[in-house]
Amino acid sequence: MTDPAGTQAIQPPPAMQAAPLISDWIRFLPDRRILVLSGRVELGQGNLTAILQIAADELDAPVEAMTIAGADTSLTPNEGFTSGSLSISQGGMAVRLAASAARQRLLAEAARLLQCAPEDLGVEAGRVLRSGVDTPFDLWELAARADLDAPALFYAAPKRPDERRVCGASLPRLDLAQRLSGGFFVHDMAPEGVLHGRVAHPPTLRSRLGAFDLDALRARRRRRRGARRRLSRGRRRDRGRRGRRRALGRRPRRMG
Question: What predicted TM-score, i.e. pTM, was given to this entire model?
């Protein structure tokens, strides 16, 4: 397989060896949404929004009909870790190949039903067109008829860069509203009594914790708890002084 420009061979992402089918990556839902399955994690970089754009571009589907699941171990392919721009270079490429293969399979089914050549057909906003004229079919109707449990790499035909309309466009981030409003956290854990937590990185991959001084940790926590109490009392006293000054009609003196 070569890239859309025909200049070099496309190297399939490693995850496609274990998840080779179109349906491993793209599914058409009964409620007329399209579910993109990605093994990548949204850590605030907007990668799932970008991957969704890639799928919408290859399918010629409306963005508002697209939804994406990221790193759901019960549902999505195992793509390993999320780092170093691999979300787009590998995760995005896997979805591009699978979505383009889905489009080819669906157009082949439409061509069979319409008794025409697949080359005569196109897709616009999820509707199938024949020589630019609307047909009775859309992607969801065809997905109910076509076999998408087919090898993605065999049918993949990604678009050329100049054929893409959604990639590169500025879309609202899928995660931003919840991220700004506190809708979810990666580390939203607050066990009773914990004042501070951190990852203790071992010096080597095979290192194991041998021992730790629990008494020292407890003493440290007591010291911090005492410091918090003193700080809290100091703040209360300061608020009390300011309140008394306001009651007496005096302004706090400025220092310096």
Answer: 0.71
